[in-house]
Amino acid sequence: MSQPVVFPPIKDGIYHISSLFPEFYLELQRDGSLRAMKLNRMSETQKWKIILVEDGTYEIRCVQGNCELPCETYYAHKNPVRHKTQLWTIDPRGISFVIANAFDYRALDLVIDNMVGFSERDNVRGQRWVLHQIGASDDTSSLDTQMAAMQPFPSPGAPASGVGMPMPDRSLGWHHKQKLDARPEHVHQGSTNPNSIKHCPPVNSMRVRKTLITHAIVREGVYRITSAIRKEEDGVGFLELQQDSYVRVARLDESSNGQKWSITYQDGKYHIKSLLNSCALALRPSASNPNVMVPVGVTNASTSWTIEPRHDAYFIGVLGEEHVLDFTENNNVVFENLNGCTTQRWDLDPLRFEYHPVYKPGKKYLIKNCSTGHVIWFRGNTDWCTYGTDDGDTALQFTFRDQEDGGTAMRSVAHGVYLAPELNTSTTSYSCRFILAQPGSKWYYICPDMDSNPPMVFQEQMPSGKIELTELEANNELNMWELVLKL
């Protein structure tokens, strides 16, 4: 049975791609153009192969003719050579996805007469798509399109009649004919005036930087979260947990732990915690207006957040919500419906990244290769190799310690020395990087330094078993390692 996709990750596979209204499915036409048509379960022109390429970007190809989904024209390409412009991001938006060019952020857009084109990514309804994976033994006869219907998302802590999205009128049926409203979400939904638009609040500001955007999962680390705008007169714009437990924007204070935020990732969601008293970023109703949610710092709860790339900044929202953090007047921050304003865009300025494996301090570990099952054997000096089994030799055992720069020190139990760059050793600790192979994985790439780019990582050489440093090659099991607790 076909299943709607849960993000992240999007697995390699064959999908139907439907618009947010379930009548329309992306289809490749004979002339190479794209249309959104009614579902034809047998047609290969409506089946799309999605392949993860690198850094969270994807190739999308039609099963019919293996044609690439184009980025710069209305027409699909038959050239199998990978082009820079044929890489895509697939970013969650509630229960749907925005499918955008990875390099210029134009998004796949359902326009007039069922034509599918590309326009500046701006959260319009026509840019929202639902992915339905087709199983290997699936004839798609049970394809469930109901997930494409709009669902209510009440804000955390708000009353049922609060700021959540309105409940759809199910009396009309899921397939009730509705005209596509291509206006942005910030058009007032209840207004009969097509020009009734919620405008961004005026602010005397300027765009001060362009953050380096990753389309993959944001690295775990400590960041300053900075508004994409700064007020010229006072430089206010840094998200800060203040002493009254409310989160506002303020001038840069490099000594303030309230402006330093630890971002961690697990099971498809982020947790954001201030270094000030280890308070988690959360939401509560505003004291002045209970229908408005505002960010606060709490010690007894944890909120699941999303961090989504948007042009040259990020939107920060709550998992399953259509609302995001918004920098408003008087230096306040509220939780507002996404409308594309610059006040909702945030930079993530890294102070340090975290490269810590999961381990118990003081405990001894074996380090096992993913491909061969061999364990690392340190014989002294620069002699690193692998050994077939654990025979109790302490030369196979290691301990670990977190470093202040976000790295991890790796110490040989037998020799009492630490791993250092270039496979050297030292009597003082050095920082190494343990880079997760993928979110939730038990496998790591081990890099004995904090600076190499691309990272130079441990790889077992076959058949010799010698360990050498090679450029990180994603999914190469010979350079993936597991920490095994020594009992």
Structure keywords:
38% strand, disordered N terminus, 8-stranded antiparallel beta sheet, Trefoil (Acidic Fibroblast Growth Factor, subunit A), flat, 3 domains, mainly beta
Description:
- By secondary structure, this protein is mainly beta.
- The protein has three domains: 3-145, Trefoil (Acidic Fibroblast Growth Factor, subunit A), CATH 2.80.10.50; 205-352, Trefoil (Acidic Fibroblast Growth Factor, subunit A), CATH 2.80.10; 365-485, Trefoil (Acidic Fibroblast Growth Factor, subunit A) (Trefoil).
- Helix content is 0%, strand content 38%.
- It is built from no helices and 38 strands.
- It has strands spanning 3-4, 13-19, 25-28, 34-37, 48-54, 57-62, 67-68, 88-93, 96-101, 106-110, 116-120, 128-134, 205-207, 221-227, 229-231, 238-241, 247-250, 261-266, 269-274, 280-285, 293-298, 305-310, 313-318, 323-327, 333-337, 346-353, 365-369, 375-378, 384-387, 398-402, 408-412, 418-419, 425-426, 433-436, 443-447, 456-460, 467-471, 481-485.
- The strands form 14 sheets. Strands 1, 2, 5, 6, 7, 8, 9 and 12 form an eight-stranded antiparallel β-sheet that branches. It has a four-stranded antiparallel β-sheet with strand order 19-18-14-26, with no helix packed on it. The protein has a four-stranded antiparallel β-sheet with strand order 27-38-35-34, with no helix packed on it.
- The radius of gyration is 25 Å and the shape is flat.
- Residues 1-7, 72-85 and 136-211 have low confidence and may be disordered.
